[in-house]
Amino acid sequence: MVSKYVVRDIMSRGIFEISLDTSISEAAKIMGENNISSLVISDDDGIYWGIITTMDILKHYTENLDELKAKDIMVSKLITIEPLAPLEKAASIMAENKIHHLYVLSELREDKIIGVISSDDLIKALNK
């Protein structure tokens, strides 16, 4: 099936960022309060270092989440996509990498993330 949509049509605009030293308990709180399932990890210079998802946190639920920091459990491979990419490309990248989130890069600045698209977003788009 070829979709009439591109990534920017269904992505969530904006992202939630935390620092490398944010505790995992604080990260979980941010996710819960904002009903989101991933956070981008960045430093004071705005450089992206990785991502934390709810599944990453669940893998460490028996540890002291106040002492554990974002830099300790983040996945450092941040996989991105362009806003004008077709949804089929997003789905293919997610399937190939076994991930549920793709971060969308700015068309003007390749070092700036402007949004996120999730596997849930793709499923909802398929039902339209």
Secondary structure elements and pairings:
Layout: H1 7-10, E1 12-13, E2 17-19, H2 24-34, E3 38-42, E4 48-53, H3 54-58, H4 70-73, E5 80-81, H5 87-97, E6 101-105, E7 113-118, H6 119-126
Parallel strand pairs: 2-3, 5-6
Antiparallel strand pairs: 1-7, 3-4, 6-7
What would you say this structure looks like, in words?
The strands form 2 sheets. The protein has a 4-stranded mixed β-sheet with strand order 1-7-6-5. A 3-stranded mixed β-sheet has the order 2-3-4. It has one domain (7-126): CBS-domain (Roll). It is globular, with a radius of gyration of 15 Å. The mean pLDDT is 91. A hairpin with a 5-residue loop joins strand 3 (38-42) and strand 4 (48-53). The protein is 34% helix and 23% strand. It has 128 residues and is α/β, with parallel strands linked by helices.
Along the chain, the helix and strand elements come as: HEEHEEHHEHEEH
User: Which of globular, elongated, flat, extended, rod-shaped describes the shape?
Assistant: globular
Uncertain stretches:
none
Helix content: 25-40%
Features of the shown structure:
128 residues, CBS-domain, single chain, 3-stranded mixed sheet, 23% strand, 4-stranded mixed sheet, alpha/beta
Describe the structure concisely for a colleague.
The chain is an alpha/beta fold. The protein is built from six helices and seven strands, in the order αββαββααβαββα. Helix 5 (87-97) links the parallel strand 5 (80-81) and strand 6.
